[in-house]
Amino acid sequence: MSESHYRHMKDLPSTHLLGAGTAMCAGCGGLQAVHEVYDVLGEKTVFVNAAGCMTLLSVYPFTPFRGSWLYTSMASAPAGAQGVRDALDLLVAKGRLPANDDLQVVVLTGDGAAYGMGLSSTSGAIDRGLDFIYLCYDNEGYANTGQQSSPATPHAAHTATDSGVLGHPGFKKDLFGIWVANRPAYAATVIGTEPLDLARKIERAKDMRGPRLILALAPCPSGWGFDPGEMAEIGRLAVRSGVWPLKEYDDGRVVHTEIRRPRVPVEEYLVRQERFRHLFEPERNDAELSAIQARIDAYWECVD
Amino acid sequence: MSRMLVTGNAAAAWGARLARADYVPAFPITPQTEIIETLGGWIEAGELDARMVTLDSEHSMLTAAGAAAATGVRVFTATSSQGLLYAMEMIYTVAGWRAPFVLANVSRALAAPITLEPDHNDVLAARDSGFLQLHAATCQEVLDLTLLAYRLSEDEGVRLPIIVNLDGFYLSFTREPVQIPEPSAVDAFLPAFDPGGLGFSASRPVSQAVAVLGGGPYSYFRYEMHEAARNALAVFDQVAADFGDRFGRHYSPVESYRCDDAEIAFVMMGSFATKAKDAVDQLRDAGQAVGLVRPRMLRPFPDQALRDALVGRRGVAVIDQNLSMGLGGVLHTELSAALCGVPNAPVLASFVGGLGGRDIGASEFFAMVDVAREAARSGMPPVPRLLYTRSELREMRKLQGIAAAERAAAGQPGDGA
Q1: Does residue B44 sit within a domain?
Q2: Region of residue B342 (left: phi > 0; alpha: psi -120 to 50; beta: else)
Q3: Among B62, B94, B98, B273, which residue's Cα sits nearest to residue B198?
Q4: Residue-number span of the structural domain to which B364 is assigned
Q5: Which of A15, A119, A287, B323 is the most exposed place for a label (fewest CB within 10 A)?
C-alpha cells in the first residue's frame, strides 16, 4: 500500500473543481462531501445520478461539473453506470475512443435510493463486479421531498411521516454491511467534516477496479433541523459521539480509521437537532436516550 | 444470401447480429428468452463481436441500454409483457435521451390474470413514450424491420429508439423460411453507428438528461420529440426504398392486401393479420370484394397512409387485439380520429379479438364482413363487439362450475360465479 498524499490538511487540493451557485440548501453536508470527493477524483469522471437532492445540481443549461453527467432514475443509477462503463470499454477496445479519453464512472445517489429502491440494481452491479464508484450522500431521509422517513432514518428521529412522540420506529439499515457482505473491491464511510480521512479514502478507491462504496453522512440543516452555520459542528459530533463510525473495507477486512476515546455522549449530538427535540422536551425521555447510547456503546465494544 | 427456417425470435436475433450490435443488455422473460439465448450463443462462439450483460431487471436493462446508446455504441435489447411494463419508467426516460437503439418486444398479454399468450396491450402501453413502433407479421419482417429500425432510429432527423414488435408464440416460436441477407450487403445498407452529439469522453465532457425548471423548456424538448417522431414517416419511406432496392423486399408503413377494388377492408396489426389474409382469399374466391389494411407502423401513426388506404371503402372492420378498459379498441379509436371529418370516410365497425392468444377463426372474419356491410348500408356504426363464441362461453361456464364445486367441497361459500 502506498503512502497517502494527504498527510496534513495543507495537502488537500487547493483548487476546487465543482462550481458554486447550485440549488443545494445552505449548509448542505452532502454538497460538502461531493466537493471534496470531486477534488480528489478529478474531472475525468462521468456522474450517473439517481433521483434525489443532487439531481438539481445540473439544471438546463447549467452544471457545476467540469466532467460529464447523466441523470437516470431513482432506482437504476447503477444500471446506468453499467451501460456507460460497458460502452466506454467497448469503444476503447474497438478503437473508437482513445484510451486516455476514458472516464471513471461514479454513481451519485441519496440514501432514499441507495438504502431502498435502488438496492436491486446496486446488488446486480456488485454481483457483476462492475467497475464503478458508488457515492451515497446519506441525509437520513427523503430530504428532497421534505424529509420523510427512509430506510436510512435513525431510530426515534422525527420526520415528515413519523411526527409522533416516538419518532421513527425503525432502525437505520446497515448499507455498509450489505456491501461488505458481498465482498466489493472497496467500501468506506466518510463525512465532509473529516476532509483528510475522506480524501485518503477517495485516493485509495480512485485507482482500484470493481465496485467501490463511498457512504457519506450528510448533515442536513433543512431535514434535521439545525442552523446551516452549525453543519460542521453537527458533522464533527456525529463522529466524536460514535454515531457515524469512520471505517473502510479493503482486502477482506473492515478497519476503523478513527477510534475516539472517550466518545462524546450521544446526547450532545442529538440535542442540537430539531428532529430529536422530543427526546428532551417537554420532558426528557431517559429510557430512549439511554437505549440510543447503549446501541452506540455496544457497536464500539465490538470494535475495541 | 441464405434461406433458413427460423423462429421469429431467431429472426430478431439475426437482425441484431446483422446490424452488428455492440451491446446487448438482457433479462429473461417468456416468450422472449430465445432471443437473448441465441445472441449469447453467438457471442460465446465468436460469431458476434458484442457484449451481453444480464441485468437484475428490465428496468435496469432499459437503463443500461439507454446509457450505453447515450455513450455511443449500437445497442439491441429485447423483452415481453410484464418486463416491458416493469421497464416502463425507463422506456419513457431513455426515449427523452434521444439515444437511438432497437428493442424487440415479443408481445404477451398482461396480468391479471397472468398468462403467456399474446395480445398487444403490452406494447400499446408504450404507445406515448417516444419509442417508435414497428409491428411484424412474419418472421421475415421481424428480421427486415429490425434492420430498417436501426437506420430509422439513427437517422439524424429522428434519433429516437424503436420497438420492433412480434407476437409471442405465433411468431416467436413459429419457424418460417427467412432470407438471411449477406452481412456485407447489410453493412452497405446500415453503416456503423454515428453517435453524433452523443457520448461521454474526457476531452469532450457533456451533461445528458439534465433537469429543466418550468414548463417552457419542458414543452420545447417534448414537442421536439414529437416532431422527430413525425419526421420518421418520411424517413421510413426513404429507408424502406433503399432497403427494397438492395434486398428486393418492399415495405410501406401500411400494407394493403387485395385492396384495389375492395368494398370492405379489415384493419389489424401483427401476425393475426395473416389469418385475415387467409379469410380475404376465401372471401375473394366467393366473389366478395374484401381486402386487408395492416399498419406496420403504429408510431409515428401513419394517418395519411391509412386515409389513402381506407377512404372510398364502403365499410371497415377494425380488429383490435387489445382492450383499453372503459373505451374499447385502441386502433379503432386512433383510426376514428384519423378519418374524422374526412369526406367519404367509411363507417368503422369495432371488434376486439385475439386477447390472450385467443384464435380468430375464418367464420368470424366472414361474420365481421357482414356486420361491416350492414353498417355501411345503414350508415350507423355498430356497437363494438368482443369476438367470443357460444361454445367458448359454455366452456367458461363449465370452469366456473368446477370452481364453485371446489369451493363448496372446501366448505367455502360461493355463488358459482
Answers
A1: yes
A2: beta
A3: B98
A4: 254-386
A5: A15
Ranges assigned E (strand) in A97-242: 104-110, 132-138, 186-191, 211-217
Nearest C-alpha in B relative to A56: B211
Clarify whether residues B164 and B229 are in a common domain.
Answer: yes
CATH class held by domain A9-303: alpha beta
Q: How far is B105 from chain A, CA to nearest CA, in Å?
A: 20
Question: Which residues of B are less than 8 Å from A82 in CB distance?
Answer: 25, 53, 55, 60, 63-64, 67
Q: What are phi and psi of B329, to 5 degrees?
A: -80, 135
- CA dihedral of B128, B134, B135, B137, whole degrees rounded to 10: 180
CATH number at residue B150: 3.40.50.970
CA distances from B365 to B295, B324, B329, B389 (A): 18, 22, 17, 13
Number of H helices, E strands in chain A: 9, 8
Q: Number of structural domains, chain B?
A: 2
In a shared domain, residues B286 and B178: no
Instruction: Using alpha carbons, select from A228, A192, A176, A246 the residue that is nearest to residue A34.
Output: A192
Please tell me if residue A48 touches chain B, with a CB cutoff of 8 Å: yes
**Residues A133/A73, Cβ–Cβ less than 8 Å:** no
Q: pLDDT for B161-199, tens place per residue? A: 999 999 999 999 999 999 999 999 999 999 999 999 999
Give this prediction's pTM: 0.97
Contact between B67 and A121 using a beta-carbon 8 Å cutoff: no
B201 Cβ under 8 Å from any chain A Cβ: yes
B208 contacts in chain A (CB < 8 Å): 68-71
CA distance B285 to A76: 56
- For strand A186-191 and strand A247-250, is the pairing parallel, antiparallel, or unpaired? antiparallel
A63, A90, A120 ranked by CB distance to B73: nearest: A90
- Tell me, what's the ipTM? 0.97
Ranges of residues in chain A whose predicted pLDDT is under 50? 1
Report d(CA A155, CA A163) in Å as an integer: 12
User: What pLDDT, on a 0 to 100 scale, did the predictor assign at position A1?
Assistant: 45
Contact A96 B23 (CB under 8 A): no
Radius of gyration, alpha carbons of chain A: 19
Residues in contact with B5: Cβ distance below 8 Å, sequence separation at least 6, in sequence order:
B175, B176, B177, B178
Contacts of B67 (CB under 8 A, 6+ apart): A48, A70, A72, A79, A80, A81, A82, A83, A84, A87
Query: Which three three-digit cell numbers place residue B280?
Result: 380475404
DSSP A262-275: SPPPHHHHHTTSGG
Contact between B63 and A121 under an 8 Å Cβ cutoff? The reply is yes
